[in-house]
Design goal:
alpha+beta; 7 helices; seven-stranded mixed sheet
Length: about 280
């Protein structure tokens, strides 16, 4: 596994060319769970990229596959301008990670790959957005005031069955193909992320998570934790504790991102002399 980032509160990010911006808090957690011998999840949390990857292909291959994605996404920090990155660069990073995986997994008969879901700070139509992307069955949730929603759509066999009306959501977890995904980074395929653009505004809270969380907690329980009014770090801890207490059958990774306030850059005032008058330029 690979963990890139640390918890942060009060991070101010301005809008390029404007006197306004916003303040972020965030926190990330990853745990091996109660049943697995290796943690195959990897995570990055810190502007401009927040992402969770869940590796597949055997314990060593899955670990390396998720780490390859996170390492390529981490490299985007150098390309960020004023704290934002173009989504085209994210697509390029995912393609590069797929090539990395193909190289080290060439000798693995079943191949190797990873899911990845994330939120990237990007400018869109002159305004800051979270570019939420997804490949596989890791997820992004949004709590916006009292409104709660699952932003991403799983790329999985059971999701396709539900979309076709052939399977109820309550039956999905116990379906024999519940772990079969239809898209991944790796497995000798070009990554195909879905994309949603969410305008950044104060009061919104995002949760990024691997399916180790959603195997143990349903959407109602996840909403209760997000809406409890705790800090980003406390919320990440409570979700992790709940998933482990419920069985922890898989690796569990969560990232919480809070837009806690709007920010305004203070105006610069001319310096005054001790007498209170404005100095006259010479």
């Amino acid at each position: 596994m690979s963990i890139v980032g640390r918890d942060r509160t009060g991070y101010k990010l301005m809008v390029p060319g404007k006197r306004r911006g916003f303040v972020l808090d965030w926190a990330g957690r990853s745990d091996i769970g109660r049943k697995r011998a290796v943690n195959e999840d990897s995570v990055i949390f810190g502007p401009p990229v927040f992402a969770v990857a869940d590796g597949m292909g055997g314990h060593a291959a899955g670990d390396r596959a998720s780490a390859a994605v996170v390492e390529r996404l981490a490299a985007l920090r150098a390309a960020a301008e004023h704290g934002y990155v173009d989504f085209e660069r994210v697509e390029g990073a995912l393609s590069a990670a797929a090539s990395d995986i193909q190289l080290f997994a060439a000798h693995i008969p079943i191949g190797a790959g990873t899911t990845v879901t994330g939120a990237v700070l990007a400018m869109h139509n002159g305004k800051p957005h979270f570019a939420v992307f997804n490949i596989g069955d890791s997820r992004v949730y949004l709590l916006d005031g009292h409104a709660f929603s699952r932003v991403t759509v799983d790329h999985s066999v059971v999701q396709e069955l539900m979309d076709a009306g052939l399977l109820a959501e309550a039956e999905a977890e116990h379906h024999p193909d519940s772990n079969v995904i239809t898209r991944a980074v790796g497995f000798r395929e070009e990554p195909r992320p879905d994309l949603w653009m969410l305008p950044v505004h104060a009061g919104m809270r995002l949760l990024l998570c691997s399916d180790g969380l959603t195997k143990e907690l349903d959407d109602r329980m996840i909403r209760e934790h997000l809406a409890a009014g705790e800090s980003a770090a406390a919320t990440a801890d409570s979700l992790m504790d709940a998933a482990l207490a419920a069985g922890g059958r898989d690796n569990v990774t969560v990232v919480i991102i809070d837009v806690v306030a709007a920010a305004v850059k203070p105006k610069k005032h001319p310096q005054t002399s001790s007498s209170g008058s404005v100095p006259t330029p010479r």
